[in-house]
Amino acid sequence: MSEIKTIGVYTSGGDAPGMNAAVRAVVRTAIYKGLKVKGIKRGYEGMISNDIIDLDRQSVANIIQRGGTFLKTARSMAFMTSEGREKANENLQSQQIDALVCIGGNGSYTGANIFNQEYGMPCIGIPGTIDNDLYGTDYTIGYDTAINTALDSIDRIRDTAHSHERVFIVEVMGRDSGFIALDVAIAGGAEGALIPEDLADWDKVITHFNRPNRRKKSFSIIVVAEGDEQGGALILEKRLTELYPDLKIRSTILGHVQRGGSPSARDRILASRLGSEAVKALLDGQKSVTVGIVSDKVVHTPFDLAIAGKKSVDPALIELAEILAI
Ligand code: F6P
Asked: What is the CATH number of domain 144-259?
């Protein structure tokens, strides 16, 4: 028999479409299993300021289709201090919260892990970030929606690129990883993909542009991840213009548009599965793990491993993007 009676759920770090669906699944599963649920506003900030609300079945009605997070989110500096965590623990105790479900990325996992080590509070992590760069799951909540949003923009840019016979450099999100850039480059028929994982990417684009037998294209799209070591779209536009003064080059930075919007069906289903599994993991006695889905199976990964582990982009996809760009 589990000793857990009340679960606290929060979203933390960058928002991602599908976070609401995950909170809904946590709340409904917990109630189904006879538990109480409280929502902690603004992630760790709300833990420290005691901004905590009761949640019932009705509180999460009509949110499965909404982007963002109704619990709000923040990146908390105060929770990085031991004083901040002590205050958070006092508040959770006064709210009679016995266990936590944290929806967020690596920084959020790190906070949950330290909190579990210091105060013994069981915490389950749910991977929520558009970047898809979390170890322990094939896909993170928000990624599918984000790539479809980026792709929609690229298709529109393609129209203008074609009409004006221009080269467009499109910068997508991905501070440390190129999952978004590589997938939308392939799906958007781009001529180049620049990602932090491929240190030779710029040279490859230039080699490709210089090929004597390069197909005469009147327009072209190059996708760059914001975290690429070469710099963002504006820097690349300048460098490409210096090398090819005859080309008409423009840049577009898609930015936070990729973080908003109604979650795709895939993200809603992923969020629903993971939210429910997080509650089940707590009731099964798990104390410090993330839940993820790998090859369509639910997996639990200890926080230490999920935080330190590096999820790699598939080299075969890098090659595919190159092959299809000829
Ligand atoms: O959610 C991850 C991410 O989208 C990164 O790709 C990006 O660098 C970062 O968030 C920007 O977040 P913010 O503007 O909220 O600090």
From this structure: 3.40.50.460
